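Please fill in the sequence for the structure shown.

STRUCTURE ENCODING:
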């Protein structure tokens, strides 16, 4: 029986090729989008779920309730002290320190010819307990016992192939930052993409333990602690235990602080933007994942709406077929099954095409979103189940209404070709469907325009200093005594205008903060401050504006301080002049001195974050960035000179530079990707909507063929007939615009809440979206309307 249904359905689709192509194309687009978004959501929700103890792994994070400041950092001596006190009841404790932008040298006696590499990816310094907490594959051997000793390393397969091509890397020696000779003890598979620990090499923590601070006054976000909570132990109990323990130490060394430790679940790290990610920095809010799911459903819904519109448009042509079938004894239920089989056949064809489209589009999506999603339909049972469920639901949703409308035709009326609009279920449903489609289109267009406007705001907003034509080069960690000769050598070329050294650029992802003492107070201040170590030329190179005082001198051996205006206000000083001469001491008071200048506020991080209090002072041993202001008319000569001098001063290090404005642009990569996705989804939604509108105009043309013929005989022009077809849909597009404006306004306001500095919403993007949608709709309608208007009236009236 079903064989006959499907055979009949197949013949019907072949007879109506244009109808079939439009339906399959629309559904294929919608299904492709839903599959791609499903893959992205599935991937995002899988982060670090492969660890066997994932439900019991927590990260210790710090919050300062009074300042509304959060950090994933933990105090350096925390783990050692907790372990000496029986782990405080935790099953396992481990600390991890991350590092990026490091130099790796391969000694010549290892490979015959010395090589040097710059590693821009994450490197992890881990304790042996790291492998008890996490289930990363470290290769053929258990490396826990070896990681109890210093100077051992595990390389990923990709790095091993890069450093020692065609050789066994185990037993080889690599030199880390020209400081540590590390022995390769194992080669592990590359880390999976869906982890917040994307390390390309693991180094024993003992290698650097003695170089780390041992006081309780320092926090660094690249140093994090993870614990395994025993089963049936409440999180609140464990948090109380940690805080009581930490309080005793912190108050003894840094009294007056109100910091609090929290236990953040491992499965929350990837989605909690308050504390940022672990080391991958790929945090994504769950609200955005929900938004992607909604977008996928909405695009699929618009495709289903198209199917309904096109099916009802086709109904007039199939009225006689239905009449003949009913006269021959076919029941309504048989007709419903017949039309549902046709729908199923179309959905299956569309799904088959969408699988091909997904295979083709996935590499581009991975590149765009910087993901590692794989598509394996047969091995991914969840994806297969999703496709089967989607096929059934789309078939029922898209096919049920047209099937009941078509099967409801009365044989006599159908055979006399006297079908009316009312016979097809009334106009109201189709009007609702059109309004829904174009509301969705306009919401996406408005959001795209506003996201694009916010991105332009990011690119063009003044940051409080001059970032143009600045090249940054990361320095080796033993550069202190080479700074002055290096500066003089660089300035010998007129293409290099200014040179400065600092711990980091004005706007940087490397934020350092800690406690401080103000004006010889016995206790440190009740809030943390950001700190930068910069030379005096830093202020002139970046053209920072002094509100009071000036930069400290280069040659003076006495420490002086420069603060930003936010720091001045936090200290309760009424004017910038009031700050001059006041005394500041950082952390353990090694760096202390009088305030000699107050600079205007500048953005130290992305515009999502507020400007924080900041102290700047000298410390050549902490300088890790060389900043050079270059003459952009001599850009090539400047870069060549920089490289030449670098190779002379640091022959063992790779020369690598980056323009500061490019570094700042990287802060907004996620937003830029969202912007691109919005544009793609908007185009797809508009295209699907146009297919549906085309179908509705075709329906009207079929319904009003004789009316058009009579109007033409009575002298109606092509333009007036085109207007006749268009005016109803113009009204619907305008109604959709009225509905889209508040929805888009609400959604974009939620998105903008993530940014401390953001655009002000104006009416312009809303009006532009409405005009664009209206023009697109008119162009879509005009083709079918003009075609109907140019039809020969004799053909449409001869049957009368």
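FILLED IN BY: designer on duty
SEQUENCE:
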């Amino acid at each position: 029986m079903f064989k006959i249904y499907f055979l009949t359905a197949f013949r019907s689709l072949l007879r109506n090729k244009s109808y079939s192509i439009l339906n399959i194309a629309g559904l294929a687009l919608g299904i492709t989008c839903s599959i791609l978004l499903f893959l992205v959501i599935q991937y995002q929700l899988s982060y670090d779920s492969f660890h066997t103890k994932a439900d019991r792994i927590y990260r210790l994070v710090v919050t300062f309730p009074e300042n509304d400041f959060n950090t994933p950092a933990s105090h350096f001596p925390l783990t050692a002290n907790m372990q000496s006190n029986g782990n405080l009841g935790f099953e396992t404790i481990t600390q991890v320190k991350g590092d990026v932008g490091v130099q790796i040298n391969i000694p010549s006696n290892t490979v015959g010819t010395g090589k040097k590499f710059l590693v821009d990816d994450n490197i992890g310094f881990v304790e042996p307990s790291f492998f008890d907490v996490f289930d990363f594959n470290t290769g053929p051997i258990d490396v826990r016992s070896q990681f109890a000793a210093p100077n051992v390393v595990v390389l990923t397969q990709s790095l091993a192939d890069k450093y020692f091509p065609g050789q066994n890397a185990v037993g080889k020696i690599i030199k880390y930052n020209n400081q540590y000779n590390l022995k390769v003890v194992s080669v592990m598979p590359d880390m999976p993409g869906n982890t917040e620990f994307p390390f390309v090499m693991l180094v024993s923590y003992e290698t650097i333990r003695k170089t780390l601070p041992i006081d309780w006054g320092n926090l660094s976000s690249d140093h994090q602690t993870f614990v395994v909570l025993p089963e049936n132990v409440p999180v609140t109990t464990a948090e109380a235990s940690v805080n009581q323990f930490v309080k005793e130490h912190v108050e003894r060394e840094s009294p007056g602080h109100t910091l609090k430790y929290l236990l953040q679940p491992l499965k929350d790290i990837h989605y909690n933007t308050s504390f940022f990610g672990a080391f991958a920095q790929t945090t994504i809010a769950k609200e955005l994942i929900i938004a992607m799911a909604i977008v996928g459903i909405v695009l699929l819904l618009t495709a289903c709406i198209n199917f309904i519109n096109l099916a009802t448009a086709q109904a007039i042509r199939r009225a006689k077929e239905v009449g003949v079938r009913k006269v021959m004894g076919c029941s309504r239920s048989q007709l419903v099954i017949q039309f549902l089989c046709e729908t199923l056949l179309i959905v299956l064809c569309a799904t088959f095409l969408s699988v091909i489209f997904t295979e083709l589009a996935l590499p581009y999506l991975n590149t765009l979103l910087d993901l590692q999603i794989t598509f394996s339909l047969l091995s991914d049972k969840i994806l297969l189940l999703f496709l089967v469920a989607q096929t059934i639901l789309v078939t029922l949703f898209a096919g049920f209404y047209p099937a009941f409308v078509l099967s409801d035709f009365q044989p006599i009326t159908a055979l006399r070709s006297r079908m009316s609009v009312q016979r097809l279920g009334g106009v109201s449903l189709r009007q609702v469907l059109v309004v829904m489609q174009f509301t969705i289109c306009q919401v996406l267009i408005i959001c795209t325009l506003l996201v694009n406007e916010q991105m332009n705001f990011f690119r063009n907003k003044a940051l409080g200093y001059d970032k143009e034509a600045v090249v940054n080069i990361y320095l080796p960690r033993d550069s202190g005594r080479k700074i002055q000769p290096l500066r003089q050598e660089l300035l010998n070329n007129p293409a290099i205008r200014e040179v400065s050294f600092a711990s980091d650029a004005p706007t940087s992802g490397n934020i350092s903060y800690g406690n401080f003492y103000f004006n010889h107070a016995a206790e440190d201040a009740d809030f943390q401050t950001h700190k930068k170590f910069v030379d005096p030329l830093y202020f002139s190179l970046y053209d920072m504006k002094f509100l009071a005082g000036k930069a400290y001198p280069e040659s003076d051996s006495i420490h002086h301080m420069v603060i930003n205006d936010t720091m001045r206000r936090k200290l309760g000083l009424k004017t910038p002049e009031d700050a001059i001469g006041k005394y500041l001491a950082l952390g353990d008071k090694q760096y202390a001195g009088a305030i000699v200048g107050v600079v205007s506020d500048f953005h130290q991080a992305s515009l999502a974050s507020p400007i924080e209090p900041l102290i700047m002072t000298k410390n050549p041993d902490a300088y890790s960035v060389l900043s050079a202001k270059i003459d952009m008319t001599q850009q090539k000569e400047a870069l060549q000179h920089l490289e030449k001098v670098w190779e002379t001063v640091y022959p063992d290090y790779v020369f690598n530079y980056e323009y500061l404005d490019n570094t700042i642009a990287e802060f907004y990569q996620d937003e830029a990707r969202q912007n691109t996705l919005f544009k793609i989804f908007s185009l797809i939604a508009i295209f699907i909507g146009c297919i549906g509108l085309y179908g509705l105009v075709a329906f009207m043309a079929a319904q009003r063929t004789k009316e058009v013929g009579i109007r033409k005989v009575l002298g109606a022009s092509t333009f007036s007939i085109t207007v006749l077809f268009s005016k109803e849909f113009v009204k619907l597009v305008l109604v959709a615009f009225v509905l889209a404006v508040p929805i888009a306004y609400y959604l974009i306001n939620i998105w903008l809440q993530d940014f401390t500095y953001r655009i002000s919403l104006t009416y312009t993007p809303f009006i532009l979206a409405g005009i664009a949608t209206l023009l697109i709709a008119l162009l879509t309608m005009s083709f079918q309307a003009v075609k109907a208007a140019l039809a020969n009236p004799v053909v449409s009236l001869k049957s009368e």
